Amino acid sequence: MTLDQQIAAIKRGTQSIIPEAELRQKLEKSQKTGKPLKVKLGLDPTAPDIHLGFAVVLRKLRLFQDLGHEVIIIIGDFTASIGDPSGKSKTRPQLSPQEIAENAKTYADQYSKILDREKTTVRFNSEWLQPLDFADIIRLASKLTVARILERDDFQNRLKEGRELRLHEILYPVCQAYDSVALESDIEMGGTDQMFNILLGRDLQREFGQDPQIGLFMPLLVGTDGTEKMSKSLGNYIGIHEPPAEMYGKTLSIPDSALYTYYELASDVSDEELAEIKVQLETGTANPRDLKRRLARNIVAQYHSEDAAYAAEAEFDRIFIKKSIPEDIPEYPLREKPARLIAIMVDLEFAKSNGEARRLIRQGGVYLNEERVQDENLEITGEQELILKVGKRKFARLLP
Fold first, then answer.
1. How far apart are CA 16 and CA 162, in angstroms?
2. Contacts of 1 (CB under 8 A, 6+ apart)
3. What is d(CA 243, CA 239) in angstroms, rounded to the nearest whole number?
4. Tens digits of per-residue pLDDT, 159-215?
5. Contact 215, 68 (CB under 8 A)
6. From the CB of residue 87, how many other CB atoms can be counted at a distance below 10 Å?
7. Which residue, 151, 222, 347, 357, is most buried by CB atoms nearer than 10 A?
């Protein structure tokens, strides 16, 4: 790629690059010296469950790898022990070294779907933060002013509202900023909620005589509901390790209003194709259903294969267009007879609780042999084999 093409590729889908003017300078310097840029991303040490929303950042990191730069994943094992200073959650539990190592392995297993594992470096910030003694911490704190730290929005809000702000919480962004100094990073990626911490890293690098890093911020991908950010807790996520059929079906469920954003942030279509899709959506010259099917195939192919994508589409059509039952569905032998239907649904993990199972029945989303179930207290006698369907994509064969 030419330098202009590299910059265009990096800027695609980004929310902001601060300061953008320095991006060209760093890329030019890297080309002239042959020294790759260090691009880092900080993660907490809890076990991940990567979905398309998180994959937005990882896909941008992969671009930097393809451009020849060094990607560094920072596991914040030390900073996690300080606790979340946002005031919105409890202090994180301190994890054992064994738990942290296992979670880091889980990260590697999942991010390798996107990143080149051989070209990805994983570091723990306890490597450079743990050895600091009290004098080192005082010297580090002397590099920054109280006024600068209190520019952080949530700190300001808590002081205005008369809520306590403890001293150790002020040190949290200082420690995270020091990660950038320790690694002499050139670019740090993160969400907009990390903007203060990442820009503080620029300030601290300057104080240590380093060339300050660029902050590259990616937008939050909305979930399949089209309103809230993608989150497992909200149930509006598409996991990158989900089976092809599940991934395909969930992608088709996104609202038309989110189509362009998904193409921009979650697909690998070219810039030319993206521009064409934008025109089609704005002029109404393409059927959103066809664009969703293409998007679903694209996403499944990225994380599985092209063959899996077309197989998932064929299976979807067979079930939902031709109204057939999937070929491979779980079998559930009835151990007790009669058995309460809501208990069966929970046991199959088709519902998280009896209460949710009842709600699904009340909402008309539960079928036995294609007949809608209306009785929340229905018991299965086990006299014959039944096909249970919950929602659009969950099936099970109930065996007598």
1. 33
2. 9, 67
3. 9
4. 899 988 888 888 888 999 999 999 999 999 988 778 999 999 999 999 999 999 999
5. no
6. 14
7. 357
Half-sphere exposure of 115 toward its Cβ, with a 13 Å CA cutoff? 30
**286-309: per-residue pLDDT in tens?**
889 899 999 999 999 999 999 999
Question: How far apart are the C-alpha atoms of 44 and 86, rounded to whole Å?
Answer: 14
- Find where tokens 């199972």 sit: 357
How big is the chain, counted in residues? 400
Q: What is the secondary structure of 202-251 as a DSSP string? A: HHHHHHTTPPPPEEEEPPPPB-TTSSSBP-TTTT---BTTS-HHHHHHHH
Token digits of residue 158: 């808590």
Name the token pair of 27. Answer: 């890329």
CA atoms within 13 A on the CB side of 204: 25
Handedness of CA 334, 335, 340, 346 (dihedral sign): negative
Burial class (CB in 10 A: 0-12, 13-18, 19+), 4: exposed
Q: Which two three-digit tokens encode residue 302? A: 């990225």
Report the C-alpha gap between 268 and 301 in whole angstroms: 10
Whole-angstrom distance, CA of residue 6 vs CA of residue 310: 32
Pairing of strands 371-372, 366-368: antiparallel
* Cis geometry, peptide bond prior to residue 97 (ω within 30 degrees of 0): no
